[in-house]
Amino acid sequence: MVNNELAIKISNLGFHYPGNDGVTFSGLNLKVKKGERFGLFGPNGAGKTTLLSLMTGLLSANQGTVELLGHDVSRHSNKVNALFGFVPQDFSFYQEMSPVENLEFFGAWAGLNRRQIKTRTDELLHILGLENVRNKQVDKFSGGMKRRVNLAIGVIHDPSVLILDEPTVGVDVQTRHAIINYLLELNKNGTTLIYTSHQLSEAEGLCEEVALIDSGEIIAQNTLTELLKEHSKDSLEGLFLELTGKEYRNDV
Ligand SMILES: Nc1ncnc2c1ncn2[C@@H]1O[C@H](COP(=O)(O)OP(=O)(O)OP(=O)(O)O)[C@@H](O)[C@H]1O
């Protein structure tokens, strides 16, 4: 039966990269409730991107299950693909095309018809402040403008669950505000947000539920308020340093 309460349910997840390089997950469990603003934080190399890639089915688990709104992601069904949007850390669009051409391409790929693509494209370019460059080639854009194009592509099909891997890395204050406010607006309208970032003060304003990950293990999960109270900390950064230590991470 489809579980209507959980956006993500990861059960007994086992994963390692071929050749056992990099992070290993062994019996990892994680639940994210529908409608939540969930943040996943951890040091470099902790396994955040790997875990997000397992959530979206981009990587396949060696063991256990990943369910997205009650559907097994390993089946790669059109139904599952329509339910989530993914905003990857690396730019995932065609640099030689314009925002409009990219949104047309990714909108069609997501199964939207021409009319839906046109409506969503106009709406998103307006919300994300890209109207005046709608027909310009993206490779000429600044980092912040490219981040906004990346985000527009991830939400073109209005997904129920939006998974974002460091969506504000390298952007200026204006773009950061615009992106975070847009994410809060999406969440107000029901979109579940699953987000990772190293911008911990930004994350404090966005996330209500928080998980910390280190070396492939979830070492804490609760509401941000409860975690801060439990560890007598007044910031996510303080909590992060207490739970993950102060050493550099040089895993290769
Ligand atoms: N394709 C791959 N093959 C082998 N190892 C990999 C691969 N991708 C990542 N790794 C390794 O797995 C570990 C976890 O990487 P991952 O990108 O998930 O970490 P992260 O928490 O997202 O880090 P960051 O904060 O630096 O983005 C790292 O040691 C990384 O080098």
From TrEMBL:
Alphabetized SMART domains for the sequence: AAA (SM00382)
Record keywords: ATP-binding, Nucleotide-binding
InterPro entries: AAA+_ATPase, ABC_transporter-like_ATP-bd, ABC_transporter-like_CS, P-loop_NTPase
Coiled-coil segments: none
SUPFAM superfamilies found in the cross-reference section: P-loop containing nucleoside triphosphate hydrolases
Domain ABC transporter residue range list: 8-240
GO MF term list: ATP binding; ATP hydrolysis activity
PANTHER family xrefs: ABC TRANSPORTER G FAMILY MEMBER 20 ISOFORM X1, ATP-BINDING CASSETTE, SUB-FAMILY H, MEMBER 1
Name of this protein: ABC transporter ATP-binding protein
Species, as recorded: Mucilaginibacter ginsenosidivorans
